[in-house]
């Protein structure tokens, strides 16, 4: 490693960051230490990905072969854009032929081959806006790495993210082509089992997935539903004819 400006070393930079960290709360110190020692964080900086989360999607895709050239992709909760980068590269999305659409109320810096809507997915008009961004086409895969703001109460936080995932499932049912896929982040806590059972009605294969890039001490995992059977038509009762 080349010396830093002023004759210092990389070690000095690390020392300064650790020294400054002593003024932070204990929880913040732990987070900073974990970031500084996380190989995925270092790799994302070296390879130009906007977040370490990019490797979660890459690892899931390497195992299940979800993303293919020409697919149309919707990414819910897209900021800061790591999943968008992976998806655009995998499906060959370009500015001339955009096949990747993301949404996040935080906003995302522009990316080649990607349309981003700066909106809250839970807004009433967001599904229609995403549908319009797809240009009248249906999606081959819906991705959701959304997470609700945490309260510190595990049971409440678990139910919040399951609620987000349930809304994402309903959106996926409305836009997916038959044979399409859905990938959604959840946290262990029990309620995800009911969601799993619900997905099994509409998808041929459903899996729990914890990619290597997901930290071992985290309760985070992903629900992967593959091969969408198509939208169900409500059964009409005799008295409705």
Automatic annotation (TrEMBL):
In what residue span(s) does the Ribosomal RNA methyltransferase FtsJ domain sit?
49-228
Entry GO terms, CC: cytoplasm
Q: Report the EC code(s) recorded for this entry.
A: 2.1.1.166
Where it sits in the cell: the answer is: Cytoplasm
Q: Where is the active site?
A: 185
Catalyses which reaction? uridine(2552) in 23S rRNA + S-adenosyl-L-methionine = 2'-O-methyluridine(2552) in 23S rRNA + S-adenosyl-L-homocysteine + H(+)
Which Gene3D superfamilies does the entry mention?
Answer: Vaccinia Virus protein VP39
Query: Which function does this protein serve?
Result: Specifically methylates the uridine in position 2552 of 23S rRNA at the 2'-O position of the ribose in the fully assembled 50S ribosomal subunit.
In which family does this protein belong, per the annotation? Answer: Belongs to the class I-like SAM-binding methyltransferase superfamily. RNA methyltransferase RlmE family.
- HAMAP family assigned: RNA_methyltr_E
Which protein is depicted?
Ribosomal RNA large subunit methyltransferase E
